[in-house]
């Protein structure tokens, strides 16, 4: 089995769609989408992912409306577990940029904490220990993480790969390709589940550019039992072939003094 996780194009978050750059990226992806030999498609319900997928679906000869209706899954939305900093100001150490100009505080995405906090709390990088942190207990991250894991496991079980411990029992072999048009955060959750590692290591240690393609294969080294291994992460060949530079929206500032880049 081959899994492709395709991030949406450069986002217009305010309107949940694509910027003009994102449209160009989505069109570049669509120009090469047939080369990926996709058999089945699954979609996030969010507009920026659906808009990205639309160009590729048309290039694949699929009906966009029916595919969206039949293959959209809520758990593929961006991973939006949050911490209510106004209610729990002790977390300002982890989220110091929660303070708004008027002095009030805002909620934050749980995994978007500053590196210095992680440096003092290495348990977040442990495969299972992150689930026992106070932050995990105070927020909805575990429930949402487990919901995503159940979602991907249900899909895989439909193709004969049933979660069994830290791998998958192969009840029926499948060599097709499944493509998931979704988001960076939720892709990291799925990869962490498939590879049995902490999602925090992926959230903070990888960068998947808009419209990048991450490729994962099952390996059945022992008959009847499979593991998943990442073959490619964040492939942007389609952008290179179409003469496009990847947009910066996946990254944070290279040096802090660069105020034009995201901090």
What does this structure look like?
The protein is of the alpha+beta class and about 260 residues long. The chain has two domains: about 190 residues, Rossmann fold; about 45 residues, no CATH class. About 35% of the residues lie in helices and about 20% in strands. The chain is built from nine helices and eleven strands. Strands 4-9-1-10-11-8-7 form a seven-stranded mixed β-sheet. β10 and β11 form a beta hairpin. α6 packs across α7. The longest helix has 18 residues. The radius of gyration is 19 Å and the shape is globular. The N and C termini lie far apart (about 40 Å). The mean pLDDT is about 95.
Which structural traits does this protein have?
263 residues; alpha+beta; Rossmann fold; 2 domains; 7-stranded mixed β-sheet; two-stranded antiparallel ribbon; globular
Summarize this, please?
Helix content is 33%, strand content 20%.
SSE ordering: EEEHEHHEEHHHEEEHHEEH
What would you call the structural class? alpha+beta
- Find the CATH topology of the largest domain: Rossmann fold
> How many E-type strands?
11
């Amino acid at each position: 089995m081959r899994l492709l996780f395709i991030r949406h194009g450069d986002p217009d978050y305010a309107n949940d769609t694509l910027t003009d750059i994102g449209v160009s990226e989505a069109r570049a992806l669509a120009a090469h989408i047939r080369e990926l030999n996709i058999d089945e498609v699954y979609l996030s319900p969010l507009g920026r992912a659906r808009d990205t997928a639309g160009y590729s679906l048309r290039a694949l000869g699929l009906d966009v409306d029916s595919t969206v209706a039949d293959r959209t899954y809520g758990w593929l939305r961006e991973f939006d577990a949050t911490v209510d900093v106004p209610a729990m100001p002790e977390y300002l150490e982890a989220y110091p940029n929660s303070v708004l100009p008027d002095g009030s505080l805002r909620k934050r995405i749980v995994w978007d904490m500053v590196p210095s906090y992680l440096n003092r709390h290495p348990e977040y990088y442990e495969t299972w220990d992150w689930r026992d942190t106070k932050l995990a207990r105070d927020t909805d991250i575990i429930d949402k993480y487990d919901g995503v894991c159940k979602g991907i496991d249900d899909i895989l079980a439909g193709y004969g790969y049933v979660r069994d411990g830290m791998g998958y029992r192969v009840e029926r072999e499948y060599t097709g390709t499944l493509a998931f048009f979704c988001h960076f955060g939720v892709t990291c959750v799925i990869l962490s589940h498939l590879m049995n590692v902490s999602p925090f290591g992926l959230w903070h240690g990888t960068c998947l550019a808009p419209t990048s393609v991450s490729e994962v294969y099952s390996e059945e080294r022992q008959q009847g039992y499979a593991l998943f291994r990442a073959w490619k992460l964040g492939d942007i060949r389609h952008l290179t072939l179409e003469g496009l530079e990847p947009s910066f929206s996946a990254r944070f500032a290279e040096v802090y003094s660069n105020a034009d880049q995201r901090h």
